[in-house]
Amino acid sequence: MARILVVKPLFPYPPHQGTRRVSLGLLGDLAAAHEVVYLCQREQRDEERWIPEIERLGVRVVAPLMPNHLSPAHKAAYKAKNRLLSQLTGTPELALYWSNAVLRGSLARLGREFRPALTIIENWELYRLRRSIGRGLAALLAHDAAFQILARAAAADSDERSKARRLQRLAREKRLEVAAWRLYDAVLTLTESDRETVLEELREAARDDRGLSAGARAHAAALPLVQHLPVPVAEEFFAFERPAAARWRIGFLGTFRADFNRDALGYLLREIWPAVHQALPQAELIVAGNGYAGELRAQAEAAGARWLGFVADLRRFYERIDLLAVPLRFGGGVRIRILEALAAGVPVVATPIAAAGLGVSGGRQLLLAAGAGELVQATIGLLKDQELAAELGRAGRAWCAEHHGVQILRPRRLAAIQAILDLAGRAADRSR
């Protein structure tokens, strides 16, 4: 048993986002074998009431209130200060926002008091926290290779000015992200494809170090250990029973703070849903998600869609739909919603980008369609062919249980963590 400190920039409860469910799943696995302290930040004072829910996983929670939420005046001053610092230093505003003095101080204090053998930091934007880890090993949980999301967003952008701005941001943030990976003893990725990307970029960065002095080059060449941490799906989704009566309901689910989800819904409303509705007037589009209620909501409702907004119980959402549409044109990481839909036995129509890195086979566990025309045909075909829909639902659930069940993955995930802990022993052996 080792002492492990896990650090996340934001509070992970209620678990209504895929990234939050990833965080809670990691805590549950770690607590099964190690002593764990969880450091996160509250954006709202009333989030304190959820701390016992996290502690039920067997971890101790330290959750200070973010300094910008002490009062409206603190919020305005904090935002102005971070914007100015970002302009002066080139540090992303999000990195400044998350890695504030309160979180840095809490991390340093826990390092002295808890004395962890391993500290796991979530999200590369927290790279400024690395200097506050005074003892033990440090690992980064990279939810995705974020620069790839920017690259795909630029490729999908038809406006030349907007594309140029995206490419400029891509060049800047890719350098920062790869540099952040290199600060850690290990990097954990959620997909094998992201693992390969991280390894490739780290090796490329090491090759670029050839102009350094011999000592600096030797230090830079010590690449982090890169481990795949597969994502489990909560058992409650596998217990879900599909309603017997088949209908014509298409579901869209996403957190609308993410630009790739806003783009995907706009794409669905403009280029996919009208053709589907024309062919199947009885079809219904149901949209769920949090973090956005602006122009897209008006467009969805004008198109006749039902806007649910935030859905606390995703199983209830899956009861309301007969097909999940995931028409992402760019994105990264692992699409938790696809895994959970498969576990719930819900047929899925997705773009190859949405399913990238999952290891699923188009036509066996779900339907893959590359463009608007193909997405329309796949959606209409699946709604009409209830036998195919039921077959995909069964196959998707069986595949997900085999590859993403909690009990199946826990030994693999703990082995990935143990491989990082073993780095300390190997380093000690080399020093003798």
UniProtKB/TrEMBL annotation:
It comes from the Bacteria. It holds the Pfam family Glyco_trans_1_4. Gene3D superfamilies: Glycogen Phosphorylase B. GO terms for molecular function: glycosyltransferase activity. Keywords: Glycosyltransferase, Transferase. Transmembrane segments: none annotated. The keyword Metal-binding does not apply. PANTHER family: D-INOSITOL 3-PHOSPHATE GLYCOSYLTRANSFERASE (PTHR12526:SF510), GLYCOSYLTRANSFERASE (PTHR12526). This is Glycosyltransferase. It comes from Eiseniibacteriota bacterium.
